[in-house]
Amino acid sequence: MDTKPTDNEATALRPENPGGIDTAGRAGTPVQITLNAVLAALEDNEPKVLCVTRGDSPLALPYGPFDPREHRTFELGLRDWVTRQTQLSLGYVEQLYTFGDRGREGLGRSLDTPLEHLVSVGYLALAAAAAPVDDADARWRSWYRFFPWEDWRSGKPALLTDAILPALGQWVKSADGQTREQRRARVETAFGQQNLHWEEERILERFELMYEVGLVGERRASRTAIEKSAPNEDGLAARTGLPMVSDHRRILATAIARLRGKLKYRPVIFQMMGPAFTLLDLQRSVEAIVGFALHKQNFRRSVEATGLLVRTGTLSDQTGGRPAALFRVDRDALQNRADMGLVIPRLVHKPTGRRPTE
Amino acid sequence: MDTKPTDNEATALRPENPGGIDTAGRAGTPVQITLNAVLAALEDNEPKVLCVTRGDSPLALPYGPFDPREHRTFELGLRDWVTRQTQLSLGYVEQLYTFGDRGREGLGRSLDTPLEHLVSVGYLALAAAAAPVDDADARWRSWYRFFPWEDWRSGKPALLTDAILPALGQWVKSADGQTREQRRARVETAFGQQNLHWEEERILERFELMYEVGLVGERRASRTAIEKSAPNEDGLAARTGLPMVSDHRRILATAIARLRGKLKYRPVIFQMMGPAFTLLDLQRSVEAIVGFALHKQNFRRSVEATGLLVRTGTLSDQTGGRPAALFRVDRDALQNRADMGLVIPRLVHKPTGRRPTE
DNA sequence: CTATATATGCTCAGAAGGAGCATAAGTCGT
DNA sequence: ACGACTTATGCTCCTTCTGAGCATATATAG
Q1: CA distance linking residue B35 with residue B78, whole number of Å
Q2: pLDDT one-digit tens code per residue, A267-318
Q3: Which of the nucleotides in strand D have any atom less than 7 Å away from a protein CB atom?
Q4: What is the pLDDT of residue B220?
Q5: Are A63 and A86 in contact (CB under 8 A)?
Q6: Beta bridge partners of B36
Q7: What integer pLDDT is reported at residue B116 of this predicted model?
Q8: What's the number of CA atoms in the CB half-sphere (13 Å) around residue A89?
Q9: Inter-chain contact A56–B8, Cβ cutoff 8 Å?
Q10: Nearest to B122 by CA among B152, B93, B97
Q11: Is A117 within 7 A of strand C by CB distance?
Q12: Residues B48-67: pLDDT tens digits?
């Protein structure tokens, strides 16, 4: 270390001439900022997301403008209008992604008509319960209504086997040479049929692929001639979940992907649990989010190993069988170990049937 | 599934009245968008980042305005001005975070004077080599110049033991009761001294903590009385790395954190390697990024197990010892398995000395 | 009292990963 | 040519993690 920090005490003020490599003569055009919220909560072992409608347009994620005069940060602005509109207390808020495409209406594809300069910042917010909302236009909906092929909790969805995968297969076969190989690889990575297996976190990749192939309801703003000849116009798009306004479904997919991933290395799941719960409650919640069934005993083993839970001492008699011990989160332990998430003991074999040893 | 998607074919157009929960009467104020780039590359086993200077203000990350009239997406805009200013070909570009704080100059703290409405989108970009840049004000610098305490490649930095940790300890002791316990927990999570261990990915958390305590050069815009009484004004800030303009050092920390994490589950490291390299080259590169030494044999074992590398057949005689086999990336394998990163066989015991069995 | 739930404890085996030993094949100085 | 070093590379050992399944406990429904 030979150079000491500059003498002039490093004032953290922006220099007169903002020091980009080249800002000469180019002024950024002012744009509008919109905040999009994916508000997620669990209800009866279903993962739900708050949606709004306006007239007969498709569903939308709640969103509002960001006014920098009113709020110091995005997050404060978001919390403000969410709590003003709903009675929800947002425990956990996380920025997802900022979408700045001019052709954003078309999921990032080019568009023929010029669009307004719109930038939207997506946020994921977790609520402890899907509390009723005071807005007739707002409603909680299971997120698998938008992504039915993502719910493997009772096995591989028939929609996937019967419709989506064949359609993707056709799309692959409709090209040749290198393009074909690339398409095959993309489908394989996203949907993992042969060597790879289904990775729940790839939900965005899957959605974008399906969008590109034309398998979902949202219309692409423009298509090239080749893309127009895609063979999947048999109405499959009508069965692949509810469409949403603009690219909101993509934002939702981003949020789910983030949450599915984060579960594994941060204890976020407890933001969505009530004050006391059984281990099976917790398991069902995790299953709801990741979208597949877990191995019960192993789940319990690893959850108890975290030391994040303590027994309340009481039992739950809602089981229909032997009563289950009720647990609550150890707030202290949670604070001290904000790292660490849950092990997800994925069931590799059969989801339910216990196969005899032989 | 009872409700079929709406009949009107889900046009992906934004509805006339943008359907936020409540947009009535509130118009978002237009803001300026700035793109910040963390341009990273490796040079002689040092991780480098491109910095610019303007006059005698502190170093800055290259940044430029985003003009939606000119570029369709942020990423295109970024690539455009980076390639115009440098000869670098950006292989990999990834959005980091969008900073919208009004008090951004003060790292997100409140500020007394009103500021312009500025939003900046941070990007991480990886280049294959730290190629020379055609701008006298731009220069590659090791990122450990900004974060000297993050480089554990030759053991725990003395700066940490001698200065930073004691100062943090004082900060903890200067509070009492619950505050004290909270501070202790925060320091422990970020710097992991007792039960936890150093987690390289927590670089942002560490920097923000140090900022809050006043251990880094960047000045906080405003402080509360209590914070002003922090006991760490002994000039330590002059030794904790080079300061940067505004919150650029925070953006850099975000980028490093992202890269350190991503290594483990995406093969991004190959974006920063030349066409052919030895396994030790690869190891040194990974070590440069994560900031600590790896176990050589185990690193090699797991890298070879990925199947992402193929031997070129030639040997490197640059070793000073037995020649090493040269490898190159198997592009096909890389494409087919965009998932999977490298196992990081962290050395838990002594970095160098082999302790006799006894 | 019996069938049938669910809860909970425990064992077993394979895979992954942390460490270190041993050997191979170069360079450099004498 | 030889000995001292240096780096490369192969292999073993052992512990921990984790996928699976068996066995037992304690309820409820008839």
Answers
A1: 7
A2: 999 999 999 999 999 999 999 999 999 999 999 999 999 999 999 999 988 8
A3: 5-12, 17-22, 25-28
A4: 65
A5: no
A6: B63, B122
A7: 57
A8: 3
A9: yes
A10: B97
A11: no
A12: 999 998 888 889 999 888 88
Interface test with A, best of B21, B99, B210, B236 (most A CBs within 10 A): B21
Alpha helices in chain A (DSSP H): 74-85, 158-159, 165-173, 177-191, 203-213, 225-228, 248-262, 279-290, 296-306, 331-336
Query: In 3-state terms, what secondary structure has residue A324?
Result: strand
Residue with tokens 């990273």: B40
Q: Do B339 and A196 touch (CB under 8 A)?
A: yes
| Dihedral over Cα of A126, A128, A130, A132: its sign | negative
For B302, residues 6+ apart whose C-beta sits below 8 A from its C-beta are B342, B343, B345
Q: Is the CB of B300 under 7 A from strand D?
A: yes
Residue A233: the pLDDT is 53
Neighbours of A122 (CB within 10 A): 26
Half-sphere exposure of A110 (CA within 13 A, CB side): 5
Cβ-proximal residues to B236 (8 Å cutoff; 6+ apart), any chain: B163, B164, B167, B215
Mean pLDDT of A137-141: 90
* Distances A12 to A7, B148, B220, B222 between C-alpha atoms, Å: 13, 20, 7, 11
User: Which whole-number Å values give the CA distances from B230 to A4, B169, B249, in the listed order?
Assistant: 23, 12, 22
Name the token pair of A117: 């300069």
Average pLDDT, chain B: 80
Q: Are B57 and A108 in contact (CB < 8 Å)?
A: no
Confidence grade of residue B32 (pLDDT, cut at 50, 70, 90): confident
**Which pLDDT belongs to residue B56?**
82
